[in-house]
Structures are given as structure tokens and as C-alpha cells.
Amino acid sequence: MPAFKPAFFALFLLAACDQTAAIAPQPDLPADDPRQAELLAAECTIYFAAVVKLEADGRTVNGNPTRGCPAEAGGIPADINPMVSVPSVTPGYPQTLYDRMVARGIPADLAGDIAKSKAFWDLVAKRDSLLAGF
Fold first, then answer.
1. pLDDT digit string (tens) for 4-43?
2. Do 47 and 104 form a contact (C-beta atoms < 8 A)?
3. I want to staple 118 with a disulfide (CB 3.0 to 4.6 A). Which of 9, 11, 77, 79 is the partner?
4. Helix/strand/coil (H/E/C) assignment for every residue in the chain
5. What is the pTM of this model?
6. Backbone torsions φ then ψ of 60, nearest 5 degrees
């Protein structure tokens, strides 16, 4: 039996691991602040809606976009359809959120549509509102 090359074995192990990007807590809030959970749930509703959309379109999900999300977030509706007139994704939290969607396995074309959605911009506004009171 041929010996496995270390690089091949390492590649096999990496492929077997779940490499979904974690949802990082908001650095501007204390870790135990209840607003952390509120923002996490709002972000997760977008991930659950994206998975439903991909499956409805007959597309496969790459990775596990809902990893680390509370299951109840799956039951909260999120309007991820692109709006007609939206601001472009700007540096800061909007860009971070877009990048995290892609890193979690949401295809770039769908992430681009979601970045034009009510759910995306409601989350950005909610975060800004919660941090303004901090």
C-alpha cells in the first residue's frame, strides 16, 4: 500500500473540518451584554433565509452558514430580496457583514443581493442604534 504524503493527509483533514467563519461578538459591547445576543439572532435570520433561498433555487449550500446560530432564529422571517434603491456596501460593519456572509459559504451573487436587502440594512441600522446607546 503506498504511503500517504503528509501534504495530502493535511489537505484531507482540512477538507473534513468545518471552516465556517464564526460570528464574532461586537467589540464595542461587553461580551455578556444582552445586545450581543440580539445582534447575533438578527444576523442569523439572514443566514437561515439565505439557506432557504439557495435550496429553493436548487443550489447547494457551501459550508454551514447557520453554524453557531440559535435555532429559533430560523423561525424569524427575513426579507433578503434586493431593494430597488439602496446604499452601496461601505467600509466598516456593512463590509464586515458582507464578507462574513461569503466566508460562511453564501455565494457572492446571493450575498450581493442580500447586501441590497431590507434585512441587511435593518441589521446595520439596529447595530448602529444599539451602539449609539452604549
1. 343 333 333 333 344 555 676 777 777 788 888 899 999 9
2. yes
3. 79
4. CCCCCHHHHHHHHHHHCCCCCCCCCCCCCCCCCHHHHHHHHHHHHHHHHHHHHHHHCCCCCCCCCCCCCCHHHHHCCCCCCECCCCCCCCCCHHHHHHHHHHHCCCCHHHHHHHCCEHHHHHHHHHHHHHHHCC
5. 0.78
6. -90, 150
